[in-house]
């Protein structure tokens, strides 16, 4: 009796082991191995924040939203692909025509997918999408937020703020100088003189470059023909530093009016902002430099500042008034 039970248990254990085993899959010959995309110097893209635990759904929502606007703004890409196909030899045989059609479909899909490439970040509630021409991140994000403010249907339920980055670089003094020359030159060295500007640096998990040093270096790159104005600016310079990478862009004077490109606030303002809007006053959005964007909340109701982990230095704890005085002192001394 005991011997039969022993045989039965051995047989069942063998069956379980056989079920759990998985075949080892060998990549096919010539099949490229997938490599996770990374942010490289010279890239352009869009930072995004989202609700806690909704990073996957937010990535899918943003990809659909971006592709919809890409088709709306740059729909000529597929037409160009079709035009290229029509110039081929018309008298090719059937097999060649089939190959050409399949290749054309693949090229169109590739063009559509590589316009926006999501990069996995090791930080909660933060996403990044790399972009490629003809997408221009600043005007692209501005169009999305402008349409949202004018009553467009909300397409991204869990997405908070969008931060366009015209160019990315290394988070070093040399990297900041290169990015500043490339991003600020076309705006402050080509357009009209006497522009009023402001600088808003944001740092996450970065303590190498101090906030004041970033402001001073950017102000030097802007030049002395322009004047600093933290509230009545014509151009606002955004600088996002995350660990060993940084990005920069120049946005327009309606940045605060569009809730700092916070889609959640545009569609559903917090009660404080609603009260100010009801009496006809423009909502005042406080500048919270060196803190996570005030748009990440675990329950999605109102802005929170303590969701994204950050390393703070002592110079990050100054008040808004002392920051303004320090900024003016730096920029006046240049």
UniProtKB/TrEMBL annotation:
Source organism lineage?
Eukaryota, Fungi, Dikarya, Ascomycota, Pezizomycotina
The UniProt entry, under PROSITE patterns, shows: THUMP (PS51165)
Q: Does the keyword RNA-binding apply?
A: yes
- Keyword match GTP-binding: no
Task: Give the protein name, as stated in the record.
Answer: THUMP domain-containing protein
Q: Name one GO molecular function term.
A: RNA binding
> Where are the stretches annotated Disordered?
1-41, 278-334
Q: Where is the composition biased (Basic residues)?
A: 19-28
UniProt lists compositionally biased (Basic and acidic residues) regions at: 284-293, 302-334
- Gene Ontology biological-process annotations: tRNA modification
Q: Which UniProt keywords apply?
A: RNA-binding
């Amino acid at each position: 009796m005991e011997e039969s039970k022993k045989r039965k248990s051995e047989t069942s254990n063998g069956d379980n082991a056989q079920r759990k085993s998985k075949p080892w899959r060998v990549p096919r010959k010539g099949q490229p191995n997938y490599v996770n995309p990374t942010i490289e110097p010279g890239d352009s893209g869009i930072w995004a924040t989202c609700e806690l635990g909704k990073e996957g759904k937010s990535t899918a929502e943003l990809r659909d939203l971006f592709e919809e606007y890409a088709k709306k703004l740059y729909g000529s890409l597929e037409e160009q692909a079709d035009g290229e196909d029509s110039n081929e030899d018309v008298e090719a045989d059937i097999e060649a025509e089939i190959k050409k059609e399949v290749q054309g479909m693949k090229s169109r899909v590739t063009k559509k997918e590589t316009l926006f490439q999501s990069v996995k970040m090791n930080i909660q509630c933060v996403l990044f999408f790399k972009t490629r021409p003809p997408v221009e991140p600043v005007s692209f994000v501005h169009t999305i937020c402008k349409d949202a403010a004018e009553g467009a249907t909300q397409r991204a339920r869990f997405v908070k703020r969008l931060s366009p980055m015209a160019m990315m670089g290394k988070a070093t003094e040399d990297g900041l100088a290169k990015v500043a020359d490339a991003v600020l030159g076309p705006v402050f060295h080509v357009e009209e003189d006497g522009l009023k500007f402001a600088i808003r640096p944001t740092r996450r998990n970065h303590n190498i470059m101090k906030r004041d040093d970033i402001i001073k270096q950017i102000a030097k790159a802007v030049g002395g023909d322009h004047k600093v104005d933290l509230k009545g600016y014509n151009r606002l310079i955004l600088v996002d530093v995350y660990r060993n990478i940084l990005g920069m862009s120049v946005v327009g004077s309606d940045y605060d009016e569009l809730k700092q490109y916070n889609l959640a606030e545009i569609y559903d303002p917090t009660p404080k902002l609603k009260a100010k809007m009801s009496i006809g006053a423009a909502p005042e959005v406080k500048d919270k430099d060196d803190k996570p964007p005030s748009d990440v909340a675990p329950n999605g109701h109102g802005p929170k500042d303590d969701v994204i982990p950050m390393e703070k230095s002592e110079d990050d704890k100054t008040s808004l008034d002392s920051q303004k005085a320090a900024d003016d002192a730096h920029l006046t001394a240049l």
